[in-house]
Amino acid sequence: MAAANIPVIDISNPSQDESQVAKDLVEAAIEHGFIYIKNTGGDIPIDAVQGAFDLSRELFAAPLEEKQQCKYQKNNMGWAGMQYETLDPKNQRQTLVLLTQVNRVFNFGEFIDGQPQQPIPPSISHRTSQISAFRDYCYNLSLKLNTLLGIGLDVNPPSFFTTSHLRSSGPSGSILRFLYYPPLPLTPTAQPGIDVRAGAHSDYGSLTMLFRLPRQAGLEIQLPSGKWAPVPVSPPGTESDPAPPILVNIGDLLSYWTNGLLRSTMHRVVFSGEGNGVEGETDTEARYSIAYFCHPVGTSSLGLVPSERVRGFKGAQVGEGERGVLTADEHLQMRYVYSVSVQEKDRCVR
Ligand SMILES: O=C(O)CCC(=O)C(=O)O
Ligand SMILES: [Fe+2]
C-alpha cells in the first residue's frame, strides 16, 4: 500500500525564511491536514521525548488497582480502555467481546503551578514534574505552530491564534495523552483488515502533536479518494534524525474556525498484517504513542478567522452569517455530545 505523501517541514532551522516555512505549513494543512515536523531536538529535547515514553511504559505497567483509582472522568482526564464494537454487518464478528482491550489511554489535563489537577497512579507520582515539563514543551511548540499558521494564513493580527491559546488567559481543553496498544499475542483473534487498534476518527481540538516510536506501524489517514494510506513513522529524509518527526494534524475546531479551509483528516490505527504496511515497521509488539491535543482557551470565540484567505474560501460549509459563533468550550461540548451519539455503537471512550 502506498504511504501517505505528507510533507516534512523543518521549523527550527534558523537559516530558513519564517514566512516561507509558515506558507509551507499552511499549504500542507489545507491539502493533507497532516504535517511532519522534523525533530532534531530544537523545540523538544530528544531526551524529554524518550523520557516521556519511559514514563508511559511505567504507567501502563503499574498495578491495575492504581490505574482504576484514576478512572476516566467527564472532565476528559484519567485512565480508560477504549472499546470498539464493530456494527458494520460485514465485520460483525466477535470484535465486541474479544477485542475490548484493544488499547488503553491516560489523559493528563492541565497542570496548575506544575501540579496535576487529577489523581496520578502512585507508581509514577514522584515524576509529576517530568510530566509537567513535557506538557510545557508541547504547549510551547503548539504556540509556535499557531504563530506560524497565523503568519501563513495572513491573519490580522498574525498573533491571533497564539493569543487565543495563551494559558495565562484561562483554562482550555488541552490534553496530554499516553496511549498503549497491547501486543498481538494478547489479542490473538485480531484480524488484519478487519480489527483495528483505534477506530476511524478526527481529533476535536485545534492541533494535535503525535509522537511515535521507530518501527511501530499502524497509523493510517483517509485520502480524499476515501482510500486509507499508512503514515510511516520515519518518512524519507528523516531516517538519520535523532528522533522520528512529530506528526501534527489539524483538528475539527481549527477546521471549523477556518470554515473548512484547513482540513481535519480522518485517521485510525490498524493491524496492517504481514507485508501490507510500511517496510521495516511491525505491528506485532506492544505499541506506545503520545499525543498532545491542543485547544484554545475555553472562552475563545470561534467567529470566522480574520484572514482574506479564509473569507475567500469557497469550499466553505456555511456562510459567515449562518455559522453562529461558538466558544471553544461550546465546540468541545458539541463534539462530545456528537461523539457519544454516533459512537454509542462503537463504545469508544476518548
Ligand atoms: O496512536 C496513534 O498513532 C494515534 C492516536 C490518535 O489518533 C488519537 O489518540 O487521537
Ligand atoms: Fe487522533
TrEMBL record:
Transmembrane segments annotated in the record for this chain: none
- Source superkingdom: Eukaryota
Q: Does the keyword Iron apply?
A: yes
Q: Which UniProt keywords apply?
A: Iron, Metal-binding, Oxidoreductase
A single Gene Ontology biological process assigned to it is: small molecule biosynthetic process
Tell me any Pfam family this protein matches: DIOX_N
What family, per the record? Belongs to the iron/ascorbate-dependent oxidoreductase family.
Provide the protein name. Answer: Fe2OG dioxygenase domain-containing protein
